[in-house]
Specification:
CATH architecture of chain B: Orthogonal Bundle
Number of domains of chain B: 1
Number of domains of chain A: 2
CATH class of chain B: Mainly Alpha
Structural class of chain A: mainly alpha
Order of helices and strands of chain B: HHH
Number of helices of chain A: 8
Distance between the termini of chain B: 60 Å
Number of strands of chain A: 0
Order of helices and strands of chain A: HHHHHHHH
Number of strands of chain B: 0
CATH superfamily of the largest domain in chain A: NADH-ubiquinone/plastoquinone oxidoreductase chain 6, subunit NuoJ
Helix content of chain B: over 70%
Oligomer: heterodimer
Structural class of chain B: mainly alpha
CATH architecture of the largest domain in chain A: Up-down Bundle
Number of helices of chain B: 3
Largest interface: A-B, 94 and 75 residues
Radius of gyration of chain A: 23 Å
Chain lengths: 192, 101
């Protein structure tokens, strides 16, 4: 009963934070609502007996990724925009509801039987969750692990190349590119 | 009393559709990237729920690789946004149509 109440609290706060994040006009508000969502998703992971994943969720998502978002938001001087919602927002909401209905329907129509693998809650408690994760990560999943490190390296190079210095800013009236300078703008894009 | 698997799956589905709605509805390109984060988190919840249900560690391994991909995606996406803002001075996805000649 306690677990179910906790699930309702964490799940409800997750969904509420996500809805606020998607619908808030101010970008900083939506980033902070997303922080709420991430922290409560960590609570969901703890309910699922995955403590290490919960810690990583808080460190990486709430600590690193969200701070990066807030940093970039501060660069762009976020102000409350008037038309922050797309014109065809009704079609978008309808499509999202259709997707949700289909997935929930498919989930309730499918009977999934537990495979009953070796990693039970008792064995994880005996060894410690971090140790179980480490054992799997450095034996069975060593090749994807190396690939992941390569992906991070390439992403770092790409981010430095894309956002680094060495690109001229086109000076126009009020800093905005008008259509007559479009060719110049594309030249800058092609060859920085 | 344990929590059935369906509840976690439904939570993941809710989060996924909220993320899809955010991608479709918002006009700011940073908000589109934030909504993609929501979608990836819903996938993570589903993976961990199945990992707990099947008593296997593979789902939690997938969460690690999704996390790596999300970090790379955020770094590259925000760098692209900065590079785009230098050229176009806008973050509105409706005005970024340079390839649509």
């Amino acid at each position: 009963m306690t677990a179910q109440l906790l699930f309702f609290y964490f799940g409800g706060m997750t969904v509420a934070g996500a809805i606020v994040a998607v619908s808030a006009p101010n970008l900083v508000y939506s980033a902070l609502a997303l922080l709420l969502t991430f922290i409560h998703i960590a609570g969901i992971y703890i309910l699922l007996n995955a403590e290490f994943i919960a810690a990583v969720q808080i460190i990486v998502y709430a600590g690193a990724i969200l701070v990066l978002y807030l940093f970039v938001l501060m660069l762009f001087n976020p102000k409350q925009e008037r038309h922050y919602i797309h014109k065809q927002y009704k079609a978008g909401i309808f499509l999202a509801l259709v997707v949700m209905f289909l997935m929930v329907f498919a989930g309730y129509k499918t009977e999934i039987l537990s495979l009953g693998g070796p990693v039970t809650v008792e064995s994880v408690r005996a060894m410690g969750h971090t140790r179980v994760i480490g054992n799997a990560l450095y034996t069975d999943y060593i090749f994807p692990f190396e690939i992941a490190s390569l992906i991070l390296l390439v992403a770092m190079f790409g981010a430095i190349l894309l956002a680094g210095r060495g690109q001229r800013r086109i000076k126009g009236p009020a800093g905005r590119v008008d259509l007559s300078k479009r060719d110049e703008a594309t030249k800058v894009l092609v060859r920085p | 009393m344990t929590i059935p698997l369906d509840w976690y799956l439904t939570l993941g589905f809710f989060l996924f559709s909220i993320g899809v709605g955010g991608v479709l509805v918002r006009r700011n390109i940073i908000m589109v990237l934030l909504s993609i984060e929501l979608i990836l988190n819903s996938a993570n919840i589903t993976f961990v729920a199945y990992s707990n249900y099947h008593q296997s560690i593979s789902g939690q391994m997938m969460v690690f690789f999704i996390l790596t991909m999300a970090a790379a995606e955020v770094a590259l996406g925000l760098a692209l946004v900065i590079a785009l803002y230098r050229v176009r001075s806008t973050l509105n996805v409706d005005e970024i149509n340079m390839l649509k000649w």
